[in-house]
Design brief:
It is a single chain. This protein has 5 helices and 9 strands. The chain is 27% helix and 27% strand. Helix 4 packs parallel to helix 5. About 2% of the residues have low confidence. The chain has one domain: Vaccinia Virus protein VP39 (Rossmann fold). It is an alpha/beta fold.
Length: 205
Amino acid sequence: MRQLKVRCAHDGVEHHQHNPVRRYVADNLQSDRILRARRYVESSLALCGPGKKTIVELGCGVLDISGPFSDYHEVIGRECHEGCAQDAVKTYPKAIVSVGAIEEVLPFSCDVLVLCEILEHLEDPLKLIARWLPRARAVVISHPLNGDIQHDFSGGDHCWSYNDADHMEWFAVGGHRVIETQRFEMGSYRIIMSRSMNLISEIPA
């Protein structure tokens, strides 16, 4: 992992909390990423078997990814931006959303864990991975790939730039098997996204 020296995680959170509320699914640049992530969540739910499942999304924003599943599953989100959290609850009233640092949430068992565009913001992403992934049956992770360490490519929020090896390390540390990975362009970003299953509780496809 390579750290961007221009800021620490606290600075990134403070910057993010002053950003306007954004619905990424309605953004021409971001909507493709959101729809890809939704498909990964849907595929992960199918592997977990029938019945109501628990989806946890850390750094959930306005619940663009997991919110649509809240009519049929328990959706629990955590977001540090109060305005985004309020918008999420208004749009998806069946979801449970709390406001605060995601690192302060005590890990609990869930069926699908969503960590999309969040690990690059954290002070200690490996610590969060090691705590949460063993408790999740399936995980969806995405983040920018090989960001420009010399320039402020993130617009003010990112602390880290990751490569392919970093991405795969998340799953190895968490005891998961990667099922599917895709890389795609999003404006000046190249995004990597994967979904996985827990090796201990894995259900045969």
